[in-house]
Amino acid sequence: MSAEFARHAPGPSVLPGSPSPYFLQAGQGEHAHLFDSLFTVLLGKEETEGQFGVFTMTAPKGQAIPVHAHPDVHEIFYLLDGRVRVWIQSAAGELLDRVLGPGDFGYVPAGLLHSYRSESDGTRVLGVCTGGFEGFFAAAGTRAGSADLPAHPYVPSPEQLGAAAAAFRNEFHPEVRFDA
């Protein structure tokens, strides 16, 4: 279990916590609810010696997440099901706006402002990030005991979200809106 996840999610994990070979069955992983979405960590920094994390995000059609950037975290979006709109502000200031569907791929280099919004119910994204950031979802959200979407959105307090953002160097920019 990733150390960041463990601080916020007591209980056993199916992840080995070291670079050991392992398999997960469908629905297994470290689950967390954040807003209306389910995040499932499949591989964390402990299993990759800090190199990368792998997670899935399942979400209904919803609102855009706040515009944010992480100065040292690279992130990818690979669409498994549904549609998600991704906004990225390039280093030159150009706003890139794309709706991704099954099989589509998007990459957000570290430091760039970005946001996304699920455009359809049942959206499923495979995400890969710089190792360690995968713990943000549990720190900002709440641990879930199953691979089900939350019955009610989990809205973290400003203090919880702020502490998670500080711990994982996730910089929110509420003054910026890409979805307006």
From TrEMBL:
<dbReference type="InterPro" id="IPR014710">
    <property type="entry name" value="RmlC-like_jellyroll"/>
</dbReference>
<dbReference type="Pfam" id="PF07883">
    <property type="entry name" value="Cupin_2"/>
</dbReference>
<dbReference type="InterPro" id="IPR053146">
    <property type="entry name" value="QDO-like"/>
</dbReference>
<dbReference type="InterPro" id="IPR013096">
    <property type="entry name" value="Cupin_2"/>
</dbReference>
<dbReference type="InterPro" id="IPR011051">
    <property type="entry name" value="RmlC_Cupin_sf"/>
</dbReference>
<feature type="domain" description="Cupin type-2">
    <location>
        <begin position="56"/>
        <end position="122"/>
    </location>
</feature>
<protein>
    <submittedName>
        <fullName>Cupin domain-containing protein</fullName>
    </submittedName>
</protein>
